[in-house]
Every structure is written in structure tokens, then in C-alpha cells.
Design goal:
This protein is an alpha+beta fold. The protein has two domains: 201 residues, 3-Layer(aba) Sandwich (Beta-lactamase); 163 residues, Beta-lactamase. It is 31% helix and 20% strand. It has an eight-stranded antiparallel β-sheet with strand order 2-1-17-16-15-14-13-12. Strands 5-9-6 form a three-stranded antiparallel β-sheet. A hairpin with a 4-residue loop joins strand 16 and strand 17. The chain starts with a helix and ends in a 5-residue tail after the last helix.
């Protein structure tokens, strides 16, 4: 039997142990709290500022950041805010790299930072469309109303009376009329045509163009990544430059974007111009800021203001579209940019945005002179960034 002294010593040890656990818990809780710091000035062309100087409620922004850290919105890898032409918020979080053959497409777990390239998925489509706009402005392409077969000399044997009527504009707006059931099968399945390309022995352009016609071009929207693979090939044949070279010279270089990677190419040196681009979130923010400023970057008109207007105006028949996995409701579609509006305190707020699978977003909000950028890893779960915008970001505007 323990003596009284030994019992007392035992109780003291137990007490000190629990006291230490409480202190560790307090330290852990304190370390997980978010403390806002303005973005770092990197001399990369982005002007930085603070939430306070642009009139954004730092309490609301800090609250949603803590919730992101806790995983309340799934897996978010970065969140950036531009207001009044200033980058005022930039945070990175822990998450997974994309891996096609991993469970839920989640590969290696890392802590993301601003130096890392991130897959943009279908944000690539919106950037490919901007390149087409620049090519038209530079005179490489005469008009969006030209037949796609004007630029596909090696595929004239696939031109039919109906398919010849498909124009560049139909590809930009996903109204080509070609059969393409991309939203009907997961991206891990050969039944998804974007994956089926890889398992086909055919040239990717042939694979896409051999699809049957289901509707008259321009009459019906159908989500169609193959359209932007075609646009990449059209751009190459019109300019004698790959989309990688063209984008670098005419879009990325003027914006001071030095790190971009077109990471996916099919055989025959054909670029996956629908979802194969990797960028840093800051580079994505520059694209959004250029869109917000009617195509200009500083004193340079990088994309024509007319093209930006068309990219922010819903194309006829492209309405009432429900995007799988998004918390948006029904959306409209323009020249490869999505078009939406939210109601905040009875006021209708227009949004123009580039969306990529998993939570890759460039959201332009003209009424508030704001750009929202995020990346994520919600490839097999619901994307919730628009909940963040509606519940926290827009109400934070004072």
C-alpha cells in the first residue's frame, strides 16, 4: 500500500501532467488562430495594400480564413483578394497535389505557397479564349464567324455540310452541336471523352471532329472541353505558334507572368488547351485584374475592351446552366467565361468568372472593383468558394 507521502507525490505528478496538457492545448489553440498580414510586395507588377485601406472588414475576412483552416469549406489551397487595383489579401493553406489515379484525385499532401504552380483545370479554357481574342486583334484571325475548317488543313476530310458551319464562336461558347458528354462520366473514366482521347489511337483533333452532330451550331449549349483543344490547334495554324509560345508572348509577358506551364500535351504535339495550364495564384490574379480593367494592364491594352465585353455578356441560348459540384445555382456562359449575379442587401451584383474543376477560380466583380482568386482540391466533393464570396467577401465591403 502506498504511504501518504507517496500518494501525495502521485497526486502532484498527475496534477502537473494535466496542467501541462492544458497549457499545450492553449498554445495549440493560439497557434491556429489567424492573424492578418497584408501581402508582401514582390515587385511583380501587383500593387499591394491592406484590407483596411480599401474598406474591407478584416474581422469577417479573418473569420472565414479561420474556417478555411479548419476545413469548413473543403480543401482550399489559396485565397487572394484584389480591391481597388490592390492585392490586399493573400493566404495559402495545406492540401493535396492533384493525382489522376489517386483516391478522390488527391496525391501528395503539402503546404502550398505563392511560388508553387497550381493546376488551373478549366480556367485554362478562359485563358485560351483570351488568346483567341488577342489573335483576332493582332490580325492572325479575321473573325470569330470563320469556319473552323479554315484553320484545320489536315482535317478537311472530316468537313461535312453540317460541320462546316461550326465557327470559332461556336467553340468559344460551347454551342458547336457536336456530341460530347463530358459531364456524363467521371474524369477517371474512359467514357468521359476528355479521358477517352488518351486511350484512342486516333489523332486528338480527328477524335473530336468525328463526333456526330446532335444540333445545329449556335442553338444548344453542351459542356465541351474538346472545343478548346480545337481552339488551341486553330491558334497554332493561324499564327504558326503553339498556344504555349503565343500565350507567353502576347498575354503572359505583358502581364509580367514568368512562370507558366502548359503541362499536358497529346501525341502529335497537340496541347490540352482546355485544362492543361499551371499558374501561380498571383498569375491568376493578374489575369482577373486585366479582365476587370477592360483588358488593360497598366498602360498596355493587352486584350481588346470589345473582347472583354463579349466575354462578360451571356451568349444567346447559354443560360440556366447548372455546373456539377458548384454551389452556384444556374449560370450563363459567354466567350468561355461564366456569367452570374448575386443579390446582396437587395442589390444585384454581377460576376464574371473562370472556373476549374476542384475549386480553381478567377472571379471578377466589377461593381465592387474586386477580383477573387482561389485554388483547391475538391475534385470529388462540392466546391464551396461561392458561399465564401456571398457570406463573407461581399458583406465585408464597407
Amino acid at each position: 500500500m502506498l504511504s501518504f507521502i507517496h500518494l501525495l507525490r502521485f497526486k502532484n505528478i498527475v496534477f502537473l501532467f494535466f496542467l501541462a496538457m492544458i497549457q499545450i492545448g492553449c498554445i495549440s489553440k493560439t497557434s491556429s488562430q489567424f492573424h492578418y498580414r497584408p501581402p508582401e510586395e514582390l515587385s511583380d507588377g501587383l500593387t499591394v495594400g491592406s484590407l483596411e485601406e480599401v474598406g474591407l472588414d478584416s474581422i469577417l475576412i479573418s473569420e472565414v480564413t479561420r474556417k478555411i483552416q479548419k476545413g469548413s469549406f473543403g480543401e482550399i489551397h489559396s485565397l487572394l483578394l484584389i480591391k481597388n487595383n490592390k492585392l490586399v489579401f493573400e493566404e495559402y493553406f495545406e492540401g493535396h497535389k492533384y493525382q489522376w489515379d489517386a483516391p478522390d484525385y488527391l496525391g501528395e499532401s503539402i503546404v502550398w505557397d505563392g511560388t508553387m504552380l497550381h493546376d488551373t483545370k478549366s480556367v485554362t479554357k478562359s485563358i485560351t479564349a483570351l488568346c483567341i481574342g488577342i489573335a483576332i486583334e493582332k490580325g492572325f484571325i479575321k473573325s470569330v464567324h470563320q469556319s473552323i475548317f479554315d484553320f484545320l488543313p489536315k482535317h478537311q476530310h472530316l468537313k461535312t455540310e453540317k460541320k462546316e458551319k461550326i465557327t470559332i464562336e461556336h467553340l468559344l461558347t460551347m454551342t458547336s452541336g457536336l456530341a460530347w458528354n463530358e459531364w456524363g462520366a467521371p474524369y477517371s473514366s474512359k467514357d468521359n471523352p476528355m479521358i477517352g482521347i488518351w486511350f484512342s489511337e486516333k489523332n486528338p483533333i480527328t477524335y473530336i471532329l468525328e463526333a456526330p452532330m446532335l444540333s445545329t451550331p449556335g442553338t444548344k449549349f453542351s459542356y465541351f472541353g474538346g472545343s478548346h483543344v480545337l481552339l488551341g490547334e486553330i491558334l497554332k495554324n493561324a499564327t504558326s505558334m503553339s498556344i504555349e509560345v503565343f500565350a507567353k508572348q502576347y498575354l503572359f509577358k505583358p502581364l509580367g507572368i514568368e512562370n507558366a506551364n502548359w503541362s499536358i500535351k497529346y501525341k502529335n504535339d497537340i496541347y490540352e488547351a482546355a485544362g492543361g495550364l499551371e499558374l501561380t495564384p498571383r498569375a491568376m490574379a493578374k489575369i482577373g485584374l486585366t479582365f476587370l480593367n477592360d483588358g488593360s494592364w497598366g498602360k498596355k491594352q493587352v486584350v481588346s475592351d470589345d473582347w472583354i465585353k463579349k466575354s462578360s455578356t451571356q451568349f444567346r441560348n447559354n443560360t440556366g446552366i447548372e455546373i456539377p459540384g458548384e454551389d452556384l445555382g444556374k449560370s450563363g456562359y459567354s466567350y468561355s467565361w461564366w456569367v452570374d449575379s448575386f443579390s446582396v442587401n437587395g442589390k444585384s451584383i454581377n460576376l464574371h468568372h473562370a472556373l476549374g474543376w476542384g475549386g480553381q477560380k478567377i472571379v471578377v466583380i466589377p461593381e465592387y472593383d474586386m477580383v477573387f482568386v482561389s485554388t483547391g482540391g475538391n475534385y470529388n466533393s462540392r466546391v464551396k468558394q461561392f458561399k465564401i464570396i456571398k457570406k463573407y467577401i461581399l458583406p465585408a465591403v464597407e
